[in-house]
C-alpha cells in the first residue's frame, strides 16, 4: 500500500493550526498569570525583654541576626555585601560560605572579597510592645532599640 503524500497545502494548514494553538496556549497563560506574592519586609518578633543581654538570635526567614547589648537591641543583615549569600555567625564573626568573606561581630569586613560592611536594619516597637524588624530600612551601626527595664 503506497503511503499517501502530504501536499503542500495540507502541510501549510497543519503548520498554521499548530502555530495558532501554541499562540492560544501562550495567550491563556499570559492572561491567567498570577504574580508570586512578594516576600515580607516586616517581621514581628518577641517582646524586647525576652532577649538577654549578650544574646545573638538568628532570624532565618528575615535573613538577619538580632543582638542585644547593654544599650539595647540591634539587627544586622545576614546578606553578604559581596554577592548576596547568607552569612553565618559563629564565634563572634560572620562568615560567608560562598566566597569566604569574613566580618567581625559588628559587621565590618575582616577579609574579602567583600569590601562593604553588613547592613544594620531598623527595629521599632509595635503597639503591642513587640519588636518589629524592617529589612528594607538601613540604619546606622549606633542605633539601638531601647529595652524598657
Describe the protein in words.
Helices cover 16% and strands 31% of the residues. It has one helix and ten strands. The strands form two sheets. The chain has a six-stranded antiparallel β-sheet with strand order 1-10-9-4-3-2, with no helix packed on it. A four-stranded antiparallel β-sheet has the order 5-6-7-8, with no helix packed on it. The mean pLDDT is 88.
Task: Please outline the helices and strands.
Elements: H1 8-31, E1 42-44, E2 56-59, E3 64-69, E4 72-77, E5 88-90, E6 93-95, E7 102-104, E8 109-111, E9 120-125, E10 131-139
Antiparallel strand pairs: 1-10, 2-3, 3-4, 4-9, 5-6, 6-7, 7-8, 9-10
